[in-house]
Amino acid sequence: MTGCLLRRLFRYVVFCLLPLAAGAVSCQASGQFGAPPAASDPTVMPTAFVAAATSPTPQRETAPPGQTETPHTPTALFGETPAAAAATAAADMGSATATRPAAPTRTPIPPTSTPTPAPQWPHTLAVPTPRPNAVDSRDLPIPTAVPTFELPAGTTNILLLGNDYPLSAGAANTDTILVASVNTRNKTAALLSLPRDLYVYIPGWRMANINQAMLHGSIAGYPTGPIGQLKDTILYNFGVPIHYTVQIDFAGFKQVVDALGGVDIAVGCSLTDWRLKSPELDINVEENWVRFTLAQGMHHMDGDLALWYARSRITTSDFDRNRRQQQLLQALLNKGVDLELIKDVPTLWATYQETVLTDLDIGRILQLAAAAPGIRQNGIQHLHLRPDDMIVWRPPEFQQDVFLVNWETAGNTVQRLFTLSSLNRANRVPIFVELINNTGNEDMALLSADNLAWQGFIP
Known about the structure:
By secondary structure, the chain is α+β, with helices and mostly antiparallel strands. The chain is built from 11 helices and 15 strands. It has helices spanning 2-22, 82-95, 213-220, 225-238, 250-259, 303-311, 318-338, 345-351, 362-378, 407-415, 442-455, and strands spanning 52-53, 155-163, 174-183, 188-193, 199-201, 207-209, 244-249, 263-267, 271-276, 289-294, 297-301, 356-358, 380-384, 390-393, 402-405. The strands form 5 sheets. Strands 12-7-2-3-4-13 form a 6-stranded mixed sheet. A hairpin with an 8-residue loop joins β14 (390-393) and β15. α3 (213-220) crosses α4, α5 crosses α6 and α6 (303-311) packs antiparallel against α7 (318-338). It is globular.
C-alpha cells in the first residue's frame, strides 16, 4: 500500500515539474534565457537605477570569416581616445576629496599544525562618496550607494573574473564577472552573474560599463588598485562586500579543464557560432574558421570546447552565456569532488599560482575545499540579473541604449545570494523525482534530470 502511494506521489510531482524538466529541452527563439528588457521612453529619466549598457565599447569576440581580428586596444566610452580617457581619469581622481580609510590593526596568528585561514577584513570603499553634485558626461545623476548587506555568519564572498587577455598583460576589460557567496558553516553556496555591460557608477570616476572598472583603476591609480576599483564598484552599486578575488585568463581556463580530464555538460539547446578549426591556428586567417554547431545532448568537453561554450553569444544572448558559464563552474566543482582533489590542494595551489591570480590564502582555500562536497550535496543556487531586473533607457541626444538596473526587483535577486533557496538540501528533506523517458533518446532524460537538479531537485 505504501509503495503504491509513493509511486502515485512521484508521478504527481513529475507531472507538476514537467514544465521545469521541459525547460532543458525547449529552445526559445528569444535567446534561450529570456528576451532583452523592453525599451522605455528615452525622454524620461528612470527614477531608480543602478545600471548597465548594451555595448558602448568594442568587445573582443571570435572573428567570423571575412573579418580580421585586430589586437585589442581598450577605448573609453563615448568616443574618447585612450590618452584622453587617461587624462580625464587622472583629472577626475585628482579632484576627488575622499581619503583612504586606515587599515585595521592586524594581530599576528600563532603557527598551527594545519593551515589556518587569515581573517576576512571588512570591505569599505576607498573612495566613499562621489564628488559633490557629480554627474557623468551625459548629465546623468550619480546614484547613491546601495546599503551594504548584512552577511550571515560563515559567509565568504569571492569575485570570479575571466579575462580576455593574458593575466601577464596587466589590468584589462573583464570578460566574465561572477560573485560566489559561500557559507562554510552551512555548506551552501550561491552564484550571481553580473553581465559585463552593466552600466554602473565606478567610484571616483563616472557611470560606465562594469567591465571597465579594473582598467580605469589601473589608469587612474585607484587607491586600492585595479582589483580594489572593481570590488568597490560592486560594493557601491550592489551592497555586496567582496572578500577575495580569483582571476583566470582563457589559456588558464583551458589548462584547468584539461587538467581535470574535461567536464560533462548537458547542452539543452543546440548552439552555433564561429570556431577555429584547431586551437593552434592563426585567428587572423579566414580559412581557419568554421561555422560550428554543438548539438543538443550530453557532451564531454575539453578545455578548448569548454571555452568556446562559455564565450559564444552570437546566436543567443548575454543572459544565456551567463547561464552556461555557471553550468561550467558547477561541472568543475562536481569533477573536483569526484576526483577527491581536496587532498591535493596544497600541490595544486603551488602549481597554478601563475595560471590563477588570487588573494585567497592557503588556509582559506583548504577551508573552502573541505566544504565543497557538502556544497555539492546541498546544491548551488544559480542567480542572474534577469531582463526584468533592468530598464533600457537612452540618454537624450545619445545614440546607444543603456541597461539600468531596476533595484526594486534586482535587489531581491542580489539578496538571494545570502538566503537559502527553498529547495536547498541544507535546511529541508530532499525532494526526489522519478523520470520516465519514453522518447527513445537517452539524452532527453539526462537533459531533464540536469535541469531539475539545477533547480534543487534530486532526479
